[in-house]
Amino acid sequence: MDNMRYPSDKNLLPHINTPSELRTLPIERLPHLAQEVREYLIDCVSQSGGHLAAGLGAVELTIALHYTLNTPDDRVVWDVGHQCYAHKVLTGRREELKRIRQSDGPAGFPCRDESTFDAFGVGHSSTSISAALGMSLGAQATGSGRRSIAVIGDGGMTAGEAFEALNHAGGIEADLLVILNDNEMSISENVGALSNYLTRLLSAPLTGSLRRGARDVLRHVPPVHQLARRTEEHVKGMLAPGTLFEELGFNYFGPVDGHDLPGLIQVLQNLRDQPGPRLLHIVTRKGKGYAPAEKDPISYHGVGRFDPKHGLTKSASGSLSYTDVFSRWICRAAAEDSRVQAITPAMREGSGLNEFAEQFPARFFDVGIAEQHAITFAAGLACEGTKPVVAIYSTFLQRGYDQLIHDVALQRLPVIFAIDRAGIVGADGATHQGTYDISFLRCIPDMVIMAPSSAVECWRMLSTGLTHTGPSAIRYPRGKDNATKLPDDLEPIPVGKAVVKRSGESGTVVLAFGPLLAAAEAVADELDLTIVDMRFVKPLDTETIADIASCHHHIVTIEENVISGGAGSAVSEFLHREGVKNVSITHMGLPDRPIEHGERDELLATLGLDAQGLRQVVLREDNLD
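The structure assignment produced for this chain is given below.
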């Protein structure tokens, strides 16, 4: 490399736009590049918001992978993708990173439509090994000779799909390299036996010294050395974290320091062309290189804009988020009812269960990234007379759909699903939008589905779920409500009963499901609309709908869910079933396509799901413009 082109170690990053340019650097200069990448990530994310701590911990690994592999021809599959920012910086998207997760910027996760270097679109956990295995066998079938590498965290390794893929790959001896990035974290602290196993073994000083010392002594006595090696295989389960993976058919290597860049490159070069299934175990630190993130990686997992010099500061806003409402409600409910239990699949902080976990530790269960288990586990709790509450994001509930039907609904068990991030989530984009839950829940027998329009309604509906004798779901959005005071009691509301908020004379009625009621109320006086807060998607308040249809000529339904199979569809189905023909109906909801990233309010406006969008629909349909 021409050193005149790179005049100083602190001026490398502006010259690296592709991995091919990265590979021209000598290894001894790569640690300086890693520092520049970290500084750049902190600067960009502090201005745009985004996922920070995971990416800081994976900088050396990212550089090492692109340095040793022939990307994008070789396939690197990132699990979840929280750690992909350094990858985007080094693959031609350095300047764009300043607008990450904004509507005119790159996605916060790897996306095949965005770059050829993004081998697989991700966002949900524990898919990387399955995808990389498919790529490996596909490359074998086509004779392309491409390498396949899956990068998965120890949090992602707690999910069943990861072990299903390991079992398959080891059984067929596939050419696949799995890199286990062990930072002892997912989003919250890792939980479960596997996490405890890795931590216990890695923290034991005897592990490394005993094995190294034995080899040094016995290396000079070949017959004894061979016997010792065979004996070691039998006692390995007590000394090495690789036994589990080797039993699954993988050759295990590690653990190695994931921040020792020259050493990591040497290991990857050694493993790159080896045949068969291999697993490299590296140990990293989440938030590496930024002291506040190293000290508090949970808070710095996903951040808004902040001052890098002072770190994160607490918001002074007095309004409550819907997550805050749930957090306060479940603590109150548990204080009054000893049967209340809380279950979360690795989303304690995001779902608002920190305070509950502190107050009621014996009734709090973080099951790790295991949505299927979380739901069936809740079903088992319900069988014994408890009141389990599954706190879960809408997008992650999709992963436990079979269990929701088979283990909860078919047995009519009283499991409460507190569904956070329902509707448009915003910056995390298509993989995290909660756009389908009404549609996939509405078809399930005996499922009560509630959509609160406010914080107070959310409190009341959660209380309603507590009294219901079968499964129930309360879907609420990401974001805040103007309310600062919540009810003093746990009084439920009548199941399946809507509320007429305003009676108008225009002949048009808006049936609002959830927080988009505010958009309808904003134009109600101007257009003289009748406004109904429907509250329940199932059971539907058919009596109110029939009354409304008898005295209005136009019904508009509005919801934060895809139109196909949504709440509006339920209204149409009822009217058709009853033979009502004297009223026209317009459905407002999410379109039949993925919704990409951007600010929540901006996306709702673009989709026409705000006051202005509703105004245009009413004027157009009623020919009043």
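Interim note for the steering committee: Confidence is low (pLDDT under 50) at residues 198-219, 227-239. The chain is about 40% helix and 15% strand.
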